[in-house]
Design goal:
Elements lengths: L1 H6 L7 H12 L10 H7 L4 H10 L7 E12 L15 E5 L2 E13 L4 E8 L6 H7 L5 E2 L1
Parallel strand pairs: 1-5
Antiparallel strand pairs: 1-3, 2-3, 3-4
């Protein structure tokens, strides 16, 4: 899970180059039982549930103003959809303001201080408005 999160803080365009060049080259001392790239890709879907559990422990407090947004989490390029197998059954084709993608969506609610209040990970085809009602049940703030 740490390797996946840290990928988003680096300036690599794709995960394969990040893993083979940076992780295997520079981070091996920190991960002595590091697996090969292909095995790591097979294990990636297992990190979603612990990641969501960790985020639930990091929630902030409701301050009165809540901002809602969503972003796409593409798992592969559109040309590779037919060959994609890692998130098979979990990832679907969806559309965002940036165009079509294949993957999941992350829906977030934050307060005016930037603290995470609620989140949902859904399949790609879910409308951005659907998870908002379920996420907002515990909040008393006005939504923006």
């Amino acid at each position: 899970m740490t390797i996946i999160v840290y990928f988003h803080h680096r300036h690599y365009r794709d995960f394969k180059h990040y893993y083979t060049e940076y992780v295997e080259g520079h981070l091996r001392p920190y991960f002595p039982a590091l697996v090969s790239y292909s095995r790591f890709v097979e294990l990636m879907p297992r990190a979603v549930v612990p990641w969501c559990g960790y985020l639930h422990t990091r929630k902030g407090r409701c301050t009165g103003i809540t901002f809602v947004d969503s972003t796409s989490l593409a798992v592969c390029h559109n040309r590779r959809i037919s060959r994609h197998k890692v998130f098979e059954g979990d990832a679907t084709r969806g559309k965002s303001s940036m165009g079509w993608f294949f993957g999941c969506k992350l829906h977030l609610m934050i307060n005016d201080e930037g603290e995470l209040l609620a989140f949902r990970v859904t399949t790609g085809e879910v409308n951005d408005r659907e998870p908002v009602e379920a996420m907002a049940q515990e909040l008393w703030a006005s939504l923006w």
